[in-house]
Amino acid sequence: MEIQALVDDLARLIKRPITVENTDSRLIAYSAHEWPVDAIRMETLLRKGASKATIDVLRKHGVYMLIDSSPGVVKVKAIPAIGFTSRMAAAVRSGREVVGYLWVDDDGVLLSAQDETAIMKTARLLSSKISKLEPVSEALENDADSLVMEILSPAGGKATLLEHRARLHGLQLYPPFQVMVLAGKASLLPQGLGVLRRHAEGFLLQEDVEAIAGIYEGDVVIVVAGEPSPRVRQVALGLARHVEATGFPVSVGIGCSYRELSMVNRSLQEASEAINLAAGLNLLDQGPCFDYGQAALGDLVMCMPHCKARRTYGRDVVRKIALYDRLNGAELLKTLEAMLDCGGKRKDAAEYLHVHPNTVDYRLRKIEKVTGFPLDDPSMRLAVHLWIKALRYSGDQGEDQA
User: Fold this and answer.
1) What is the DSSP letter of 63?
2) CATH for 305-394, among 3.30.1050.10, 1.10.3720.10, 3.30.450.20, 1.10.10.2840?
């Protein structure tokens, strides 16, 4: 959504005039010419920005300092001498750096909590768009990297200090905490990592996610706060697709969710391990996102083909089916795996396999005949399901016959 559209939407929602300026008080966008309009707003609209004299007066009265130092919406008192009526304002921040100001007319009625939330959300969405108009300072990016490093440090910093620094970057450190790692599928130079991080920041702002991104040990690391795990997985998938569309093929690892900030480093380790597990299972080309919790099964089954020399029931059943498939050009093993993956729901399995449910039924009967495998025994289903995964990952299905 463009800057003007964001401003118009906010003005309609809170029913007040809106003006957006950069830090040089150059007018960027404003809502329709609602009346009454005070002298300063009229000047700003006609001149496409406030005059130097006006800016000097506002600075003398500490207006910009007040806005810059507040993490939320502040009320700015009137300055009758220059025709400046009272109004609300919020800083538009790109990380720690203020890149603009969002001004809201004060009609004498207190803003509701919903209105304040809408104003701050718009300020966050404006951030990435105004940042594209203004160069992002290297100092700002370095500070974000420093904050991410401090949050991820096993020793950790003082929670209150971290929370204060995070607020300056527009991040509220509320639990739960979860880490995503963006690893390039090809090696990236530092400049490439910086571009990748900025793409990620823009997407996270657009999705209104409480998160901060930084470069850490050669990857882009994102610390997410206050979001449930399903939402984080959804965001990770959208982020991977967004970044890949810009020409950066990536794998995204997702760590587990924790209530304590001190556990964020563990979530980082898990996010990195999720990518390593996917690489070990040759799955990197099958999807951009890898959740450590969901990859745990892969971690288990990787060692199963070599964990014991003696024959086991599950392995023998799978190899019998694989041998039958190879000799007869059948797809019994694929069908059984789909059926087990779908929790025994034949219609879902049929849809996944693109066959009629009756075909699934026929193949399952054939499996029972070939192996004697009783599909109604939950313990045996689990054993066979695990061995299907283990032997598929190891690539030796059907190499030996029972």
Assistant:
1) H
2) 1.10.10.2840
Alpha-carbon distances of 210 from 80, 278, 322, rounded to whole Å? 39, 27, 48
Asked whether 30 and 5 are in contact (CB, 8 A), the reply is: no
Residue spans of the domains in the chain: they are 3-133, 139-301, 305-394
| Single-letter amino acid code for the residue at 118 | A
The CATH H-level superfamily of 3-133 is GAF domain (3.30.450.40)
Residue 12 CA to chain centroid, in angstroms?
A: 29
The closest of 110, 114, 131, 102 to 31, measured between CA atoms, is 102
pTM of the predicted model as reported, rounded to 2 decimal places: 0.48
Residue spans of the chain under pLDDT 70: 1, 32-50, 131-144, 154-172, 185-191, 280-287, 294-313, 392-402
Q: How many residues does the chain have?
A: 402
For 189, 347, 361, the CA distances from 358, given in Å and listed in that order, are 54, 9, 5
